[in-house]
Amino acid sequence: MSYITEPEHFFNGQKGSLRGNNVGSKKTYLKDLDGFFGDEKVRDSMNQDTLVYEVQYYFPVEDGREGGLFFGITTINPGKVGDEYFMTKGHYHEKRDRGEYYWCITGEGMLILMDGERNCRAEKMSPESLHYIPGYTAHRVVNTGAAPLVFGACWPADAGHNYGEIKMRGFSARVLDKDHEPMLIDE
Ligand code: M6P
Ligand code: ZN
Prior knowledge:
Blueprint: E1 9-11, E2 18-20, E3 23-29, H1 40-45, E4 51-58, E5 69-76, E6 80-81, E7 84-85, E8 100-106, E9 109-114, E10 120-125, E11 130-133, E12 138-143, E13 149-156, H2 164-169, E14 173-178, E15 181-186
Antiparallel strand pairs: 1-2, 3-4, 4-5, 5-13, 6-7, 8-11, 8-13, 9-10, 9-12, 14-15
The structure holds 6-O-phosphono-alpha-D-mannopyranose (M6P) and zinc ion (ZN).
């Protein structure tokens, strides 16, 4: 028996907000980012309850299911820790070969990509920019603008997140404000 249904989820293309059943949200505050910014003293001296970014997500299958896909909308607030812009933690995938798509909905920023040899490059993000993240590549988004940066993401349900290596060794380059210009600076 064939039939037509209403869509179960809606996503606002201007604001990026996601609604529907089983949409979750995870907020990351400055207090959760110990060790991720270059200047830990400055991060520690700031209001720890500052919201840095929020992810709205929809996981239609259980975590780890091969062949499944996850969907997320991330909003990074504008701000800096010293001269380093607010950003996501960044991660490799637990299953290293898994790729991912990011696309920018609103705001301005950069996607930092680091390969297994720790070579970094950054792709500029602006509304409608589309970014393919290959496997074996760590990825982090930086908000270089004065407004929130909102981006979409779609990744394999069995990819997983590996933050340990990033927390320990960081990325090999950081996006810093140099005389009001965002620059990719090697560590
Ligand atoms: C995107 C996806 C998520 C990720 C989120 C925040 O929405 O890549 O998997 O969790 O960004 O990035 P991070 O986990 O690195 O802080
Ligand atoms: Zn990822």
